[in-house]
Amino acid sequence: MKKVKPPILIIDDNEVDRYILKRLIKEANLELTIFEKKDGQEALEFLENYEANKKEHPDGFPPILIFLDINMPRVNGIQFLDEFAKLRKVIEISSCVVMMFSSSEREEEKKIIMAHDFVKGYLVKGSFKAEDLKEKVLSAIDTPIQGD
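== Chemotaxis protein CheY ==
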């Protein structure tokens, strides 16, 4: 039987930051199916296309965890959270949680972001190692995702 790798979604306009996060996930020995979107608009469209994505990825949609940047074009992280909160009420993604992944350390942004009950953590880019990431991810979700 094929082992199912729980799905996650990385939303970040910076390709290098997405690459670094994927490398840290691999170093942490977390076996995940990874979707990537370059801004909040792309990510919302991806999530809104629920039925088609569920058919295309029967064991890998919807994501259980979203890594979300704040500063992005079109729809930024804070705008995404507001729209995501509405979306969670109409499609089957209420078990999906968000982990912020940003270079911003502004307290006023953190306060707005952490007011959403589905946001389970805040990682500052470049300030953590693979083991820290693993600990944060495992505490945010309750699905076994470690490799052997």
